[in-house]
Write a structure and sequence with these properties.
The protein has helices spanning 27-30, 65-69, 74-87, 89-96, 103-112, 128-140, 208-217, 244-247, 262-267, 269-273, 288-298, 313-317, 349-353, 390-400, 421-424, 452-463, and strands at residues 6-13, 16-23, 33-34, 39-40, 159-160, 198-199, 221-225, 302-307, 324-326, 329-336, 342-344, 370-371, 377-381, 405-409, 431-435, 446-449, 478-482, 488-492. By secondary structure, the chain is an alpha/beta fold. The longest helix has 14 residues, at 74-87. α5 packs parallel to α6. β1 (6-13) and β2 (16-23) form a beta hairpin. Among the domains are: 65-199, no CATH class; 201-235 and 281-328 and 382-496, Rossmann fold (3-Layer(aba) Sandwich), CATH 3.40.50. It is built from 16 helices and 18 strands.
Length: 496
């Protein structure tokens, strides 16, 4: 078993938070308790009063509270039922079930179809697969539904038949021949995605001068950002050759993403804290691209920035909270996995730099030994296995109805559901990629390839905008290379 250094356990003594150091042994995997040893100097003092520890804002995403207050959309229900009556349940599922759906999405679909809340009352403890099974079972047992009447011919344009896609599976594959099939035997090995023939839309022609013009006029820009906007600060991205996942290969993990897996954290929190320092934001810095986002905000052009980054540098650069959706959470706050007590993220930064596990003093006040994850404090980062913040689900559909320009910057669009936002953008809205590498077949009207800071510096120079950042120089010169497909590579001449 790999050793990940000292794990820090806190306890309360005479009103002062103190710590004890325990070697990272095989206790995590064996399920053994962690004993106390000699106390050392205190590092974290939790918030003085425990009354704040379980506020409405800190409710766990899995508690299903939204189900209690959810009001089904009657108009949408009628629309759904009409479609099912006309086309059949399986056609409806092919249309509505997507690869990017979350637990919450499936619950909302069940409720908007008119099924009782009681059917999903165990939402907090159900998996995505189990909820999908409930949806299928409800629909297939609904006697009001008719057999599908699907016309597979389409005169709408070019069609793309994905029936032979090895990664796709028709909803038909999940229909049980035995209506009394045991739920425990049901296997949902692959996520359902649409298999009906759909129109393949070719992006409309869009040139670099069009983008310059639209940036000057746009008032409701959505910007989706990823790790590429912070790499100039030394924070690694995730999937490039020098990215974080490549660095994690030294941990001998079958899947480097396990470092950000909730179940793995609960089993062995030391694994995450052995690498967290690599993605910890630097003190007092933010990139030129972050300042560009602030500039869009100050010019009343930014509708929303949906960031996948966890470094919280957007707010450090001056983005207002109402303009920002942190899709994957951030280091700004931290939470005890046992009592749900919340802390300022900065309170655990020293632990992160030392590759130690921060622990909650309140949980350990009267505890002598406990499982290794007990009282561990976790940054409010969205791990694999956790739902995205409610704010994402609340805003995204409304924002997409208002948008007039869509920018994707510094991301390879690999992680759902953020990766599928582009699929929901209205066809007429220009979709622009600013990234080091191209992303083919995602419907972009224009791709500008290069370092994110360089590309936006060029755009702002064309617009005569001044980016308020020490690295911006309006006198910088750029080399533009037009690619065969109409996209551009933009490089600052001094960059090479």
């Amino acid at each position: 078993m790999t050793t990940f250094g000292a794990q820090t356990i806190q306890r309360q003594s005479g009103g002062v938070a103190t710590t004890t150091s325990v070697p990272a042994t095989t206790a995590a995997s064996s399920g053994k308790s962690v004993p106390r040893t000699t106390p050392t100097k205190g590092i974290i003092t939790p918030t003085p009063t425990p009354s704040h520890l379980r506020t409405n804002n800190d409710i766990n995403d899995f508690d299903g509270k939204f189900i209690e207050t959810f009001e089904p959309d009657l108009e949408l229900r009628n629309k759904y039922r009409s479609f099912i009556h006309r086309e059949g349940a399986l056609s409806f599922l092919r249309t509505e079930i997507t690869q990017s759906m979350t637990k919450r999405d499936i619950c909302v679909l069940i409720l908007n179809l008119g099924y009782p809340k009681k059917a999903i009352q165990d939402y907090p403890i159900l998996t995505l697969k189990e909820l999908a099974y409930i949806l299928l079972k409800l629909m297939l047992n609904d006697s009001a539904q008719l057999e599908p009447k699907v016309d597979m011919e389409s005169d709408l344009g070019e069609i793309d038949d994905n029936d032979d896609d090895d990664d796709a599976m028709d909803v038909d594959d999940y229909q049980s021949e035995n209506e009394n099939e045991n739920e425990n035997e049901f296997e949902f090995d692959r996520e359902i995605r649409p298999s009906r023939r759909t129109m393949k839309m070719t992006p409309f022609k869009y040139k670099l001068p069009d983008l310059i013009s639209d940036l000057s006029k746009a008032k409701r820009i959505i910007v989706v950002t990823g790790a590429g906007i912070s790499t100039s600060l030394g924070i690694p991205d995730f999937r490039s050759f020098k990215g974080l996942y490549n660095q994690l290969s030294k941990l001998n993990l079958n899947d480097p993403q396990k470092v950000f897996d909730l179940q793995t954290f609960m089993r062995e929190p030391g694994l995450f804290y052995s690498i967290a320092h690599l993605v910890l934001p630097p003190e007092g810095k933010f990139s030129l691209l972050h300042s560009f986002l602030k500039l869009l905000q100050d010019k009343n052009k930014l509708l929303r920035n949906y960031t996948q980054n966890i470094d919280n540098l957007e707010q450090r650069a001056g983005l207002k909270s109402e303009k920002l959706v942190q899709c994957h959470g951030s280091f700004a706050r931290a939470k005890c996995v046992s009592c749900q007590g919340t802390f300022s993220g900065e309170k655990i930064f020293n632990h992160i730099r030392r590759q130690q596990i921060p622990r909650c003093a309140i949980c350990w006040k009267n505890t002598q030994q406990a499982p290794i994850h007990f009282g561990a404090i976790k940054p409010t980062i969205t791990f694999f296995g956790e739902d995205l913040p409610e704010r994402f689900h609340t805003l995204i559909d409304k924002d997409l109805q208002q948008i007039d320009l869509f920018l994707v910057i510094g991301t390879s669009l690999k992680v759902e559901p953020v990766a599928s936002i582009i699929d929901k953008v209205p066809y007429k809205v220009p979709k622009i990629l600013i990234n080091k590498d191209p992303i083919p077949d995602r419907g972009f009207n224009l791709q500008l390839l290069g370092l994110c800071d360089d590309v936006v510096s060029y755009l702002c120079k064309c617009l005569k905008w001044d980016i308020p950042h020490v690295d911006y120089n309006s006198d910088d010169q750029f080399k533009l290379s037009k690619l065969k497909n109409g996209d551009w590579e933009i490089v600052k001449k001094s960059s090479k």
